[in-house]
From TrEMBL:
Xref: CDD domains: E_set_Esterase_like_N
Signal peptide bounds: 1-25
Gene: axe1-6A_4
Pfam families (UniProt xref): Esterase
Organism, as annotated: Luteitalea pratensis
Name by which UniProt lists this protein: Carbohydrate acetyl esterase/feruloyl esterase
UniProt cross-references to InterPro entries, sorted A to Z: AB_hydrolase_fold, Esterase-like, Ig-like_fold, Ig_E-set, Mycobacterial_A85_antigen
Gene Ontology molecular function: any one: acyltransferase activity, transferring groups other than amino-acyl groups
Cross-referenced Gene3D superfamilies: alpha/beta hydrolase, Immunoglobulins
Keyword annotations: Signal
């Protein structure tokens, strides 16, 4: 019996070695990579989905691309060469949106998450885009949380302090209040917009005055964050609630906790999309508080017929107190008509403003460029 047991153990050991040897002999498939950025700016996307019937990759501001499946069930597609930038994308698998499981760089969003991929710019600093990391002094990001008595929820905001920020220096720092768009959260301008990187690079190049940038949560009523149409009354409540929280809670906290200049000439407000509309609503109705106002692809102010009610005190004399009113929109943006209507209203009122139209749709590809063009004009 003992001899039989030894024989069985020896046979099992030989079988184990044979199986292990066979496994080692089989070539291992290389790990799947997605996205893969090539030297000429082309990007290859891959997704393992053997049971899918149809897969696309959708990039913000671009036509979606059909992917092809290989005999292993991996879908892939390679783009044409892309300009240096940060691109958002998702997969569409048989009609359902899906983020890339192989890419951990995710754009935060309260309704529609997406992945991001960076196509780097040239090594030459003269040709680099402002949101590429460079060997320059870096500022700091500070994350604050508080309970809003005005809105009734717990919320947050971010504060960028420039390189070399000195709370004891004689001159206080000017402040830009920078607002995100609908469905973003307070981290949108840094996580996706790369505002801190843009400011670092432009300050190092002496194109931008060192400033504080306050990036708040832009919802004056939390229930507005939902899919589908929203009633005009809710949009108005949202803007008014945001204004009240900004004036009563955020600005006092910034001027208490940071070396911030409280003069209107040293205070700016700007934002994108919903945040652009809020910037116009807040800034143009409080010119005694803000001398610099910017709107990037603004949307949500209503029809032109209602503009006199939205801006009841906006006269030519009031507008003359502004240092800058800067209104930008991409020409492929669905909101270009609304922005042109807003500019026409301002012209009828005799309000001087700078109008900027650039190529592009309703995407961060436009808004990063807006911020890089707007901030050098501030506080001069």
């Amino acid at each position: 019996m003992r001899r039989l047991q030894h024989g069985m153990l020896a046979m099992m050991a030989l079988l184990t070695l044979a199986v292990a040897g066979r496994a080692q002999a089989q070539p291992q498939a290389p790990p799947l990579v997605s996205p893969e950025v090539q030297g000429d700016g082309r990007v290859t996307f891959r997704l393992k989905a053997p049971n899918a019937q149809q897969v696309f990759v959708s990039r913000s501001g671009a036509e979606r691309l059909a992917m092809t499946r290989d005999d292993q069930g991996t879908w892939s597609v390679t783009t044409a060469p892309l300009a240096p930038d940060i691109y958002q994308y998702t997969f569409n698998v048989d009609g359902s949106a899906l983020i890339d499981p192989l890419n951990g760089w995710v754009a935060p969003n309260l309704l529609n998450m997406s992945n991001m991929v960076r196509v780097p710019g040239p090594a030459s600093s003269a040709e680099a885009v402002p949101w590429d990391m460079a060997d320059v002094p870096r500022g700091q990001l500070h994350h604050h949380f508080y309970k809003s008595a005005r809105i009734g929820d717990h919320r947050d905001y971010y504060v960028y302090t420039p390189p070399g920020y000195d709370p004891r220096r004689q001159e206080r720092y000017p402040v830009l209040y920078l607002l995100h768009g609908f469905s973003d959260d307070a981290s949108g301008w840094t996580a996706v917009g790369q505002a801190h990187v843009i400011l670092d690079n432009l300050i190092a190049a002496r194109k931008v005055v060192p400033m504080l940038v306050v990036m708040t949560l832009g919802y004056g009523t939390p229930e507005i964050v939902t899919r589908g149409p929203r009633a005009p009354q809710l949009r108005q409540k949202n803007m008014e609630g945001y204004r009240d929280a900004l004036f009563a809670e955020v600005i006092p906290a910034i001027e208490r906790d940071y070396h911030a200049d409280a003069r209107r000439e040293r205070r700016a407000i700007a934002g994108l999309s919903m945040g652009g509309a809020e910037s116009l609503f807040v800034g143009l109705n409080a010119i005694d508080r803000f001398a610099w106002v910017g709107a990037f692809s603004s949307g949500g102010l209503g029809e032109p017929a209602t503009f006199p009610q939205v801006f009841p005190a906006l006269t030519k004399d009031e507008g003359a107190r502004l240092k800058l009113l800067w209104i930008a929109c991409g020409t492929e943006d669905n909101l270009i008509t609304a922005n042109r209507q807003m500019r026409a209203f301002l012209s009828e009122r005799g309000i001087a403003h700078e109008a900027v139209e650039t190529p592009g749709a309703h995407t961060w590809l436009v808004w990063r460029r807006n911020l890089a063009a707007f901030t050098p004009k501030l506080f001069r």
